[in-house]
Write a structure and sequence with these properties.
Number of strands: 15
Strand order of the largest sheet: 1-15-14-13-2-3-4
Distance between the termini: 8 Å
Shape: globular
CATH architecture: 4-Layer Sandwich
Strand content: 15-25%
Radius of gyration: 19 Å
Structural class: alpha/beta
Number of domains: 1
């Protein structure tokens, strides 16, 4: 059951210790522990940016705090759901500088025992261009996919480093296990952009939601084959990580306004529906970002669906929802998900967050699946 917690917690390690104690109380061991978040890039147009801020375009203050608190909680892995850099450029020198800064921050987490798994976002793979009408359009380009690989390839996937950090084997990993050109709207090599692996009886799949020529989509046919093969190997739990959401979150106050425009797979309803059919079939959990907020829902609950979409795009980018339009406080909180997978197959999801004035970290919501 999903529960809302309103008690403020001053120290994250108290929360984390309690969280770990859950397994001890039930005598059910935790077999894997991970966190996930996305969207820590800054915005060069914001007032007050220093010359140095414009070099890195990163919300250092927010990510530093999150990293510090994750170091106390000690997850075995962090799945980072894209928009870790400002990007929107094919200038390799500039992009390398952005990536270097982000990796410098993440190195502290890696060195203290958490493997960082990167997933591309639109800021990594897209550029801004003008269309025939002179309007700005964002589109993925192959140059940026190549720059992504050159900066992130060593993390996708270093099996020896993964084992030494997580003390678990990552199995069924193959760099050639990727969407094929000619299917799912794919026109370019997707190595290390969409990929997957197993950890015990859990299957983890990372997807590029903005492939060149088919932005705002999911590789459904590849996912279907990937999940089928994983289930045959014995996988019981399925987790998907991607940047763009399948269903855009719109607070009640924004419904019907120009601010309620769809920004995920909604723009391709046939892809969204096929993707979610698959998610429901395997009772997967889809962790995503793109919207700079926190929101968890079962999109087809009214039709008997049980699968979850969890938007955790609160890594430090400017909030997506105006103050006057929020439905709940967590609409404008810097937040991340902390997930425990138990030996008996249960999964606990706990959302941690702090507000925009950097008050105490609190447990925002918690539920079990």
């Amino acid at each position: 059951m999903k529960k809302l917690f309103i008690t403020l917690l001053g120290l994250i390690f108290i929360v984390s210790a309690s969280y770990r104690a859950d397994a001890e109380v039930t005598k059910t061991p935790v077999v894997f522990h991970f966190t996930t978040v996305g969207d820590c890039r800054g915005d060069p147009s914001l007032a007050g940016a220093t010359e140095q801020d414009l070099l890195w375009v990163q919300n250092t203050k927010v990510m530093t705090r999150m990293i510090r608190e994750m170091q106390v909680a000690k997850p075995q892995a962090l799945f980072f759901n894209g928009d870790m850099i400002y990007g929107y450029s094919s200038n390799k020198e500039k992009m390398d500088r952005y990536y270097a800064y982000w990796r410098g921050m993440m190195s502290n987490l890696i060195e203290s025992g958490t493997y960082v798994v990167p997933i591309p976002g639109n800021h990594e793979v897209q550029i801004k261009i003008k269309n025939a009408e002179g309007k700005e359009k964002k589109t993925a380009v192959v140059e940026n996919e190549n720059i992504w690989r050159s900066n992130m390839g060593d993390l996708i996937l270093d099996l020896d480093k993964w084992k030494s950090i997580t003390h678990q084997d990552a199995t069924a990993w193959n760099v050639e296990n990727k969407p094929k050109i000619g299917t799912d709207g794919i026109t370019t090599d997707q190595r290390q952009l969409s990929y997957s692996f197993d950890v015990g009886k859990s299957h983890f799949t990372m997807i590029n939601t903005d492939p060149v020529g088919f932005d705002s989509s999911a590789p459904v046919k590849w996912l279907e084959a990937d999940f089928k093969a994983a289930k045959k190997r014995g996988a019981k739990k399925f987790f998907i990580f991607g940047h763009k959401m399948a269903f855009t979150y719109v607070p009640e106050k924004l419904k019907g306004t120009k601010e309620s425009k769809e920004g995920g797979f909604d723009v391709r309803p046939e892809v969204r529906d096929a993707f979610w059919n698959l998610v429901e079939t395997y009772q997967a959990v889809y962790f995503t970002g793109h919207q700079h907020t926190y929101h968890a829902e079962q999109p087809r609950k009214n039709q008997g669906g049980k699968a979850w979409q969890v938007i955790v795009g609160g890594g430090g980018s400017p909030f997506s929802i105006p103050k006057e339009s929020i439905d709940k406080e967590s609409d404008r909180m810097f937040s991340w998900a902390d997930v425990l997978i138990y030996e008996n197959g249960k999964v606990s999801i706990r959302i941690f967050g702090f507000d925009e004035v950097f008050g105490p970290t609190r447990v925002v919501e918690e539920w079990e699946i």
